[in-house]
Amino acid sequence: MGDSGPKAGLEPSERTAIGITFGNSNSSIAHVVDDKAEVIANEDGDRQIPTILSYVDGDEYYGQQAKNFLVRNPTNTVAYFRDFLGKEFKSIDPTHSHASAHPQEAGETVSFTVKDKEGEEAAPSTLSVSEVTTRYLRRLVNSASEYLGKKVTSAVITVPTNFNDKQKAALVAAAAAADLEVLQLISEPVAAVLAYDGRPQAKIEDKIIVVAELGGTRSDVAVVASRGGMYTILATVHDYEYGGVALDKVLMDHFAKEFMKKNAGAGDPRENARSLAKLRLEAESTKKALSLGTNASFSVESLIGGVDFASTINRLRYETIARTVFEGFNRLVESAVKKAGLDVLDVDEVILSGGTAHTPRIAANFRSIFPPSTRILAPSTYASAINPSELQARGAALQASLIQEYEAEDIDQSTHAAVTTVPHTTNAIGVIALGGDTAADEVFVPVVPPETAVPARRTVHLSAPGGGDVLVRVVEGNTHIKVTKPEPKAKENGDAKAAKAEDADEEDDSDFSEDEDEEEEEEEKREKVWKIGATLAEAGLKGVSKGAKVEVSITVNADLSVIVTAREVSGKGGVRGTLPSA
Amino acid sequence: MEATVVPLPLPALPEGWEAENGFKAIGKITNERATQRTLEPVGPYFLAHARRARHKRTFSEDDR
Ligand SMILES: Nc1ncnc2c1ncn2[C@@H]1O[C@H](COP(=O)(O)OP(=O)(O)OP(=O)(O)O)[C@@H](O)[C@H]1O
Ligand SMILES: [Mg+2]
C-alpha cells in the first residue's frame, strides 16, 4: 500500500474482505470467523489452489482442474505467471513455463497466446499477464463469494518481500480489473508470523523469528525482529534454484531411470512432452505422500509408448537422492541469519511456511542447525504447528479483518513511511540484578531488546527479598557468543571423522545431520552471554518491604529519550526520571 | 505487553548513595545507526502504534 497511489476505495460498511495468497504455484483464500482465520476450500474441495488457468473448447478451468490439463492441453494452459507480473520480458525467467503456454514479449509487459474461445476456427487470443491475473483472481474471488454467500469486495494479498513497486502496482491494478479492492499488500513472511501471533492462545513476546518460505519455484527466507507484536524485517534472502520443483525433478529422474532399466527400448519418458508432464504430476504427488508416510507409490498409466509403470520409494531413499536440494535450504537459512548480523543462538523461532515446508527432513535439518532452545514450527517438530500451506492466507485474512473497518485513506496514512519508518534501539537496555554462579554476581537483565522500534515501553518485576533500600541501575547491554573448547580427547576423534566421511558416501545413510550435530557438541560449546555496557541511570528505591517485588518500567520515546520508573509493586510512591534524547 | 517476571534480586543501595528525587541520569542510549528501520504495517500492535503516532499520544495516554 502507499505505493499504489490514491484510490477511491469502498465504504467500510460495503465491504466483505478476505485474505489471499497468490503464489506462482498455488493460491489460497481465507476469512476470519469468531476471531479465527480459516482457509476456504473452493468448489473442488481444494485449499491450495494451483495458480493455473486452462482453456478447453472455450471453457475456462482454474486450479487443480487446469493443472490436470498440463498433460493433454499444455499450450492453452497458463501456469507459473505470478512472477511475470509488472516485469518486462527480458527480466523474467521463463524456465517453469516450458511445459505450458510460453510467455512472450508484449511491449512493456509479458503475454501468453491461448485459444480461449470455442470453435475450431476461433482465433487465439493474446492475453497480457495482467489479464491472466485478473481472470485468475476473479475465479478465486468467486469461490470465496460462493462459500461466504455474499460478494467478496476486498482483500489483503500477500507478496514476496522483494516485490517492487511496479509489481505491486500491477497486482493492485489486475485486482481492480477483477472488481476487487486491495485493502493492503503485506509481505509473505510477516503474514506467516501474524498467523501464529493471531491465534487466541498466542502470547506476545520479544523474539527473533526466521521465516523460511519454501514454495514450488522459489524459496525466500526472512529474519524478523518481533517486538511487542510489531515486526521489523532485519534481512531477506531469495533463491530460485532450490524449491519444490527441484525436489520433483529429483524424483522424476529417479523414476525415469528406473523405468528405462525395466523397460529397455521403451525410451526416456523425459524426452517426450506428454510423458514428461505425466512424470511430473506423479512425482509431485509421490513427494507429498512422502511427507506423511515412510513409503510412497509412483504409478503412471501409459507413461511412454503405451507402457504402464508402477514403483515405490521409501523416505530414506528419497532423502538421500534429494540431499543436495535439502542442503540448499540449510545454506539459505544460515545465510539469512548471517546477513541479519545474528548468530543461530539469537534465533527464538523458525517458522516453516509454504508447501515444501511439510517435508520432515527439512524441519529435522533445521532442528540440527539451531540450538535446542529454538522452536522449529513445522508439523513434524512442533505439536501445535499451523499447516505451513495455510500460514500466509490466514495471516492475510487476519489483517483484512483488522483493517476492513478503516477508510482506504486511513489505511494509506497508517502505512505511510512517516508512521512506519522509525528509529530502532541499537543495544539492549536493561537493569542489573544479582545472580550468576555465586548468586551475588552482577548480571544483566534485558528489558528493552535491541532492534526495538520506538516508542517502546517494557516492564519487569524483580525481587527484593531482604527489603530495605535497593539500587535500580539501568545499563546498556550486548550479547556475545562464548565458545568453550572441551578438554582435548584421545586422537580417536580423527579416525571417527575419516570413517564418517566414508559413511557419508554411502547412499542410504540419511542420518548424516544428526551425526554432524554430535560431532559439533564434542568440539565446542557455544553460548550466548550478556555483557554489561555503559550505565545510563541509577534509581534508589528506599524502604522497600521485605520480600517485595519491584516494578521497573523503561520507556524509550520517539526521540530516543528514556523514562525510567521504579516502584514497589502494590506499594506507594516510587522513583521516576528521564534521560535526554540521544 | 505484560510485565516480565525475573526471579532475581536487585542489589542493595550502596552506603551514602544520594540523589535528588532518588534518580541520577548518567548516560544516553546508543544510536549508532544513521538509517532508521521500517516497521511492517501489519497486526493489531502496529495499528495501535500508528494510532498513537498519528494522534501524538503517549503510552500512558493510550492506557487511559
Ligand atoms: N505435503 C507436501 N510435502 C512436500 N511438498 C509439498 C507438500 N504440499 C505441497 N508441496 C509442494 O510445495 C510447493 C508449492 O508450494 P506453495 O503452495 O507454497 O506454492 P507457492 O508459494 O505458490 O510457490 P512458488 O511461488 O515458490 O512457486 C510445490 O512444489 C508442492 O509440490
Ligand atoms: Mg510462496
UniProtKB/TrEMBL annotation, chain A:
InterPro entries: ATPase_NBD, Hsp_70_fam. PANTHER family: HEAT SHOCK PROTEIN PDR13, HSC70CB, ISOFORM G-RELATED. It comes from Thermothielavioides terrestris (strain ATCC 38088 / NRRL 8126). One of its GO terms (cellular component) is cytosol. This is Uncharacterized protein. The lineage of its organism: Eukaryota, Fungi, Dikarya, Ascomycota, Pezizomycotina. One of its GO terms (molecular function) is ATP-dependent protein folding chaperone. Residues 484-502 have a biased composition (Basic and acidic residues). Residues 503-524 have a biased composition (Acidic residues). Residues 479-529 are annotated as: Disordered. Keywords: ATP-binding, Nucleotide-binding. It comes from the Eukaryota. The keyword ATP-binding applies.
